[in-house]
Inverse folding.
């Protein structure tokens, strides 16, 4: 299937993405309202979040450019040091920008 990148095509893509996002945002809690949260399920949910994060970051660390690696390392270091996500993310963005600026 192919959608042309005219203004109508772009709006259709945005509408479909909006619908899918809303469906997953509302559908997940709706389905989970029928599930009894046992300690085993709670452990699975907590572990799943880490697994998704690792699945996103590993390819960036292996195949990314030096800016991506600098961002990953800086964010990890600041998160371990400060234990606050917002300054760590800001530091990672700054590191990526500086490395990419210097190497460009």
């Amino acid at each position: 299937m192919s959608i042309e990148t005219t203004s109508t095509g772009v709006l259709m893509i945005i509408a479909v993405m909006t619908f899918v996002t809303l469906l997953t945002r509302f559908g997940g809690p709706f389905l989970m309202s029928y599930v009894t949260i046992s300690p085993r399920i709670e452990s699975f949910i907590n572990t799943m979040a880490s697994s998704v994060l690792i699945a996103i970051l590993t390819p960036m660390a292996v195949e990314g450019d030096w800016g991506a690696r600098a961002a990953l390392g800086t964010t990890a270091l600041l998160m371990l040091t400060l234990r606050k996500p917002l300054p760590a993310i800001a530091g990672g963005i700054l590191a990526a920008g500086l490395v990419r600026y210097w190497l460009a």
